[in-house]
Amino acid sequence: MTDSTGFTGSKEGADEAGSDEFMQAFRQTELLSSLFFDAACDAAIIINSAGVIVHLNTQTEKLFGYRRDELLNQPVELLLPAEMRTRYAGYRRRYFENSQPRSMGSKFVAVGRRKNGSEVPIDIALSPLPTAGGLYVASVVRDISRQQQLESKLRQHARALEDADRHKDEFLTTLAHELHSPLAAVAYSAELLRRPDLAAADREKAARIVMDQAAYIRRLIDDLGELSLMRRGEFLVRNVPTDIGKIARFAVETVRPLFEQRQHVLEVALTPAPTRVNGDAARLTQILTNLLNNAARYTPKRGRIRLSIEQQDATTVVIKVKDNGIGIPTDMLTRIFDLFTRLDAARDKYRGGLGIGLAYVRRLTEIQGGSVQAFSDGEGCGSEFVVRLPVARRANAAVSPRPPTAHRMAPDPTAIPAVQPGTVGGAPPG
User: Fold this and answer.
1) 102: which strand partners?
2) Is 104 exposed, middle or buried (0-12, 13-18, 19+ CB in 10 A)?
C-alpha cells in the first residue's frame, strides 16, 4: 500500500498504528475527565444502586474530613447524621427507581456530617449515569454555610429596612403630635393676651406658657438637628484628654433648672482627683446632659437620681446615671437606643420627645471609642444607664470643655463652681 508521500507499507501496519492512536486518545480523554472530576470546586461522589461510594474527588475529602480510602466502598449514608440515614436510604431507593437529573436550588437542603462529628448544611445535585454494568448516580455536594449566612443577613437587613420605614412613619406622627400640643397652648395664650381686661396674674401666666412652649419647640428643633447629623454622619469630634469631672459639673448645672422644676434630688459622686478620658468635651457634655434630662423626664416628681463617675481600671472610666423612675420594660432594653424608639404611649405619661436622644447618646459614645448600656428590672423599677469611655493615654494636656451648639450653655463651663458629692435640688422623698 502506497500513501501520497510514496511510502509503502502493509494494511496490518496501518491498522496497528490507528489502534495505538485511538488508545492514546482514549487514555488522554480518560485522564482529562479524571482531572476535571478531581479539580471540581464542589464535592463529587458516584454511588451504585446499593448506595455504595465507588468514586469521589478531592473536594469530598476536604468537605467531610475523610481520606479517600475511608469512603470508598462505604455506604453514602456515612456522610449524613445518624437520625437522617434511614430516611435518606428510602429516598435514594426511590430515586434509583425513577431517576431524573436534579439541579441545586431545588429546595432539597440536607445536612452533612463530617468525620469529626460536626454538621454542615449542604445542597445536592443528582445526575443518573446509566452504564452496561447498571445504573450509577453522580452527586455534586456543595457547602452552603456561607450562602445561608448571607441569606440570613439579607433577611435581617430586609427586616431592618421594614422597621426603619415603620419608625419613620411613627416619627412623623409623633412629630405632628409633639408640635400640635405646644402650638395649641401658644395660640390659646396669645388669644388671652389680646384681651385688654386680662388680670395681671393671668397675663403673667399666659406669657409663661408661651415661653415654656417656645422652649419645648426649641428642644424639638434641637432634636431634629441631632437627627440630621446622625443621618449624615457629620460629627465633628476631637478626641483629646479631657477631665470628665469638669464635664459632669457643667452638665449638672445645665440640667439644674429641670431638676428643680420637677423637685428631683440629684446625688453626684465624683472621684476626688481629676479623671481624664479620651474624648471630645462638647460631645461628652451632650452625652451627660441627654442622660440626665432623660432621667429627669422619666422620673415622677420628687424622684431621686444619681450620677457617679469612677475609673474602673487602667483603661476604662465608668459613668452611671441611675434613677427611681418609671423604668424600662424588659422587651425594650435591647432596642431602647434605636432611633425613634419611645416608651409605649399608653404607659408613657411623661413628655418623651421624638425618640432621638438615646440614639444620639449611643452614636456619640461609640465614635469616642466607648459604649453605653441600659439596665432596668422592669416597669416601675427605675433604670440605670452605664457609659464606658477609654482613659486618656496622656495624663496631661486636659482640654477645657466647650459648650456644643445643640445646647444652651454658659460660655465658660470652667467658671461654674464645682459640685461636690451630695444632693442638688429638693429634699429626699419621705
Assistant:
1) 126
2) middle
Which residue do the cell numbers 415661653 mark?
211
Taking the whole predicted model, whether its pTM rises above 0.90 is answered as: no
What is the tens place of the pLDDT at every residue in 126-170?
999 998 889 999 999 999 999 889 999 999 999 988 887 887 777
Q: Please give the helix or strand (H or E) that residue 319 lies within, else none.
A: strand 316-323
Q: In which residue are the cell numbers 431634629 written?
A: 224
d(CA 114, CA 6): 65
Q: Using one digit for the tens of pLDDT, what is the confidence trace for 192-225? A: 999 999 999 999 988 988 888 887 788 778 777 7
Q: Do residues 116 and 65 touch, judged by C-beta distance below 8 A?
A: yes
Domains, in order of start, for the chain:
40-143 (3.30.450.20), 159-233 (1.10.287.130), 235-425 (3.30.565.10)
Q: Are 34 and 16 a contacting pair, CB within 8 Å?
A: no
What 3-state class would DSSP assign to 3?
Answer: coil
Average pLDDT over residues 317-338: 92
Buried b (16+ CB within 10 A) or exposed e, 218-238: ebbebbeebbebbeeeeeeee
The dihedral built from the CA positions of residue 110, 114, 119 and 123, taken in this order, carries a sign that is negative
Q: What would the grid cell of residue 195 be?
A: 384681651
